[in-house]
Amino acid sequence: MDLPRGLPPRLYVDDEVFAAERERIFGGSWLPVCRTEDVARPGDYVAREVGGEPVVVAQRATVGSPRSPACVATATWSC
């Protein structure tokens, strides 16, 4: 009796496969970066890397909605 086999081992360590998976998983969706409480006061900010891209979320000088002040869209990422 033949048992089903798993994926080929190279798929777990190949850089091109990883890049393609990262694009498919993170590239077309909005992703959480932080909680509102993390940037609750004017001047608060959070800097993180999400899906291999640097992201900064900052609270405005006057209290309002947190925003990403230098949001630049690329072919694979949107803001």
Summarize the SSE layout with pairings.
Layout: H1 15-26, E1 45-50, E2 53-58
Antiparallel strand pairs: 1-2
Task: Give an overview in words.
The chain is α+β, with helices and mostly antiparallel strands and 79 residues long. The radius of gyration is 18 Å and the shape is elongated. A two-stranded antiparallel ribbon has the order 1-2. A hairpin with a 2-residue loop joins strand 1 and strand 2 (53-58). 15% of the residues lie in helices and 15% in strands. The protein has a domain at 31-64.
Q: How many strands? A: 2
What percent of the residues sit in helical stretches (DSSP H or I)? 10-25%
* Beta-strand percent range: 15-25%
Poorly predicted ranges:
70-79
N/C terminus separation: 52 Å
Oligomer: single chain
Order of helices and strands: HEE
Derived structural class = alpha+beta
Main beta sheet strand tally, sense and closure: 2 strands, antiparallel
The pLDDT mean sits at 78
Count of individual helical segments: 1
Strand order of the biggest β-sheet:
1-2
**3D shape:** elongated
Radius of gyration from the alpha-carbon trace, in angstroms: 18 Å
Q: Which tags fit this structure?
A:
Rieske_2Fe-2S_sf; two-stranded antiparallel ribbon; disordered C terminus; 2 iron, 2 sulfur cluster binding; alpha+beta
